[in-house]
C-alpha cells in the first residue's frame, strides 16, 4: 500500500542517501554544497512550516522523497505550492508513485490556487508525467541572487 510519511529526524541517513543521488543526477543543473542539503533536511523536519518533507513508501519500503513549500503569488491572488524536489529511486520509476504523490498533496491542499515545479526540458519522462497531470510551461525566465 502506498503512503506518504512526514519526514522525521530518524530518517536522516535514508533521506540524505536519496538526496545525494538526486543532486548527482541530470535533474539538477548545478552542484549544491553538502551543508545546504543537510540544512534543507533539518528545516524539513523542524517545527517551521515553511518547508515540508515527505518520504514515499510502498508496503513499508521507501521508494522516494519530496520537499514542498507554500507562498503567496500576486498574479494568482492566492497561495501557491512549490514542489521543490521529488525523487523516486530508479527501480521504482514508472510505477505510478509520482502520480500518487501529486494526487495526495493536491487533495490535502484545497486552498492552493497554483501548483508549481521546476523541470529541465531534457528530462522527458518527468515532463510527460507533469503534462499528463495538467502542468504547463510558464514563459518566465528566472533570475537569482544568492546570499
From TrEMBL:
Keywords of the record: Acyltransferase, Transferase
Record SUPFAM superfamilies: Acyl-CoA N-acyltransferases (Nat) (SSF55729)
InterPro entries: Acyl_CoA_acyltransferase (IPR016181), Diverse_Substrate_AcTransf (IPR051016), GNAT_dom (IPR000182)
Superkingdom classification of source: Bacteria
Record keyword Transferase present: yes
Residue ranges occupied by any N-acetyltransferase domain in the UniProt entry: 2-147
PANTHER family the UniProt entry points to: DIAMINE N-ACETYLTRANSFERASE (PTHR10545), GH14572P-RELATED (PTHR10545:SF29)
The name this protein goes by in its record: GNAT family N-acetyltransferase
Amino acid at each position: 500500500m502506498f503512503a506518504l510519511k512526514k519526514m522525521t529526524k530518524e530518517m536522516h541517513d535514508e533521506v540524505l542517501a536519496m538526496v545525494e543521488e538526486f543532486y548527482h543526477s541530470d535533474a539538477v543543473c548545478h552542484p549544491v554544497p553538502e551543508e545546504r542539503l543537510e540544512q534543507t533536511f533539518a528545516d524539513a523536519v523542524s517545527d517551521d512550516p515553511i518547508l515540508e518533507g515527505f518520504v514515499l513508501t510502498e508496503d513499508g519500503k521507501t521508494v522516494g522523497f519530496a520537499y514542498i513549500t507554500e507562498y503567496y503569488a500576486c498574479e494568482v491572488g492566492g497561495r501557491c505550492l512549490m514542489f521543490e524536489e521529488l525523487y523516486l529511486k530508479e527501480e521504482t520509476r514508472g510505477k505510478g508513485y509520482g502520480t500518487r504523490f501529486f494526487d495526495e498533496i493536491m487533495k490535502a491542499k484545497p486552498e492552493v490556487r497554483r501548483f508549481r515545479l521546476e523541470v529541465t526540458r531534457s528530462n522527458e519522462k518527468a515532463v510527460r508525467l507533469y503534462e499528463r497531470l495538467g502542468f504547463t510551461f510558464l514563459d518566465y525566465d528566472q533570475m537569482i541572487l544568492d546570499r
